[in-house]
Amino acid sequence: MYKKTIISLVVVCFLLTMIVLGVSIAFGITNRQANAENERISNDLENVYKRNYYELSYELSNAGDSLNKLLVTASPSLQQKLLTDFSDETASAVICLSILTDTSSNGEKTVAFINKAGDYAKSLNYKLALGKALSNEDKDNLTSIYNAIISINQSLSEISDKIEDNYKFLDVLNTENDLVVGFLNNIEVDIKYPSLIYDGPFSDALEEKKPSLTGNELDAEKALQEAKSYMPMECELEKCAENSGDIPTYVFVTKNLESPYYVSVAKNGGWLVSITSNITSDENNCSEEEAVKVANDYLLRLGITDMEAVWVSDYNSIYFINFVYKQNDVLAYPDMIKIKVSAKDKAIVGVEALNYIYNHNERQLQEVKVSKEEAEKKVESIEVEAVRLAIIPSGGGSEQLCWEVAGKANEDYYFIYISAESGEEVEVFRVVDSEQGKLLI
Q1: Domain 220-359 indexed as CATH 3.30.310
Q2: Confidence class of residue 123 from pLDDT cuts 50, 70 and 90?
Q3: Does domain 372-440 have CATH number 3.30.300?
């Protein structure tokens, strides 16, 4: 009897040991899978930061070169080209710097400066297009901007060796060891812009502009629920970052998708700021019309109504679609939402709603003093195909009501904007077919 009891106890202990061992192995496998997924997400984020750092250095170096050449050339046509190059290079640099400096107030200051510099260049380009010459004051301002860009480039150069030496952005992000924040703390950018000649969208008046759409502050859990409702598919999300700025946001990342999506939600009001992904497409299985319908249905599901697609381009089988708000048959271009749709499977792969958050409101529409027919006569150089009323930004945070006249001249397609109050031509864009799809210049 005693031996049987001993044998029974041994068997029970053996079985319990096997059960514990089995549970441990299963837990270990699950834990390794979770660790592997977390490591993959971390690697993806690290690569995003590294890529944007090197692109920032590249674009600002080119911006400095463009200004250097601009300051020594007297040819108006070459000045226009270099000003256009500089505007494009600063726009790219701003995107990179915004990603690298999530919560740094110094980052916001430098982003604002580079934005101002790029838009100041655009205003000078417009001046040249009117047949005017750059004044001595213009050249002095450009020299000041050039010196500031050189200062930023020198600071970037000083930290480049350390960044190449096994530097991990995620490990030091927004800490005292963050080299990017350190370089921003070491530069002082204080350029004074003459208000009479600067008419870009980042003037001092606009710096003080607050988002039009706001609301009560949400905690991370409520923002997570909002983020899930914005996703174009069922998925699990987890918080991966918080950003400060004019629109403080929570950033969430998908947990169960092969290619991660990142969702930014405004802390105040829970508005969708953006959805980003690195998804590419190598097939084209849907038409432009189908892509627009997919994007429009998505907006309707979110409760965003009265939006109209005003621009569609196809680049590498990804449709880029711009929607703007329509009030009483008038397009409000400042209230824009951009959506990316994969032509492979009609999936929403990107959303950007920052302009909509800043500008959306019901406007008191201006009186139309110039008729549709009068606007058409202003652009007799093109074969008019469509004319409609539109609200466009006009600098300094202001807006103006215009007639949008679209049509062809030779093989080119144009959008020309005629003030509905004065009849003056205030803007013109030419559509260019390129390797990047259709572009407006």
Answers
A1: yes
A2: confident
A3: no
